[in-house]
Amino acid sequence: AKTQERNTFRFYTPLMHADARMRLMLGADLRQALIRDEFHLVFQPSVELRSGRIVAVEALIRWRHPERGELMPDEFIPLAESLGLIRRLDAWTMRAVCNQIRAWDQAKLPPIRVAVNASAATFGHPGFLDSVKQALQASGISPKRVLFEITESAILRLGEATEQTMHALHALGIGIAIDDFGTGYSSLAYLKLSGIDYLKIDRSFVTDLPDSANDVAIVEAMLAIAKSLGMCTIAEGIETAAQHEFLLRAGCAEGQGYYYSRGLPPVEIERMLSPNPRHEPS
Ligand code: C2E
Ligand code: CA
Ligand code: CA
Ligand code: CA
């Protein structure tokens, strides 16, 4: 749908008036929300395909709007980006993730990885590295537990500075994943940059597996590239057993999607990871 939007001439309609007004109002609310702390995180498991074990979770932000109820990132992340608020939002996420990891460690849960999404403006900002170090220091967690997800298009937009940032994060021990891999309409040259640990195959290539011969060919090629570059692979948007089976057989390492689980509140993640699951009082 996004490609279509980009290439289609759009006429100005009364509906867009409403849309603009809505964005304005929501923009004002967004500033308030940062002050009032109206955000929370859900965590979607990432499963090792071979064993079915949860090896990681991805932090996904949600906004509990006082009037509009729970808002999804698609409804406010682009707005936060255009209003210059995304760095503060991503910093909130990073702090919340570090605190969550510390809490899980204290509860003696298995030390899984936690993936954090970072927008281009966040990742490309000169202060990013320091804010990451600060969040790690304040929480005392190991950098090895954190993985940043950067979209392919963000990396391309950022250019030069990206390389240094990725290098520095890598040196700290923080993992880096290329998110939405394959959707950036790019050359593959950036894959030579050091510090990329994971390729995340975009959902658009997974949806029609295993029926679409084209998608089968594309995904197999992506897995081959990752393998030869020594990167780990995660497929996103797995919804069916057939998709799971195909990806497992094709050699993909990990998968995420509704087939395994949606994004869950921390207590449910704890229940899933707990070595001796406690029974619910009935
Ligand atoms: P993403 O990084 O590609 O995250 C995956 C999205 O796909 C999530 O949507 C997830 O709920 C959804 N998803 C997972 N499995 C399935 C599936 O099997 N089928 C379908 N149809 N969808 C699935 P969500 O939570 O709405 O997040 C949307 C996007 O918002 C994310 O896309 C990410 O780019 C962005 N985002 C989320 N949290 C943050 C954040 O803290 N900071 C920034 N900058 N961006 C964030
Ligand atoms: Ca992501
Ligand atoms: Ca993704
Ligand atoms: Ca995606």
TrEMBL record:
Annotated EAL domain ranges read: 23-277
**Descriptive protein name:** Diguanylate cyclase
Q: What is the lineage of its organism?
A: Bacteria, Pseudomonadati, Pseudomonadota, Gammaproteobacteria, Lysobacterales
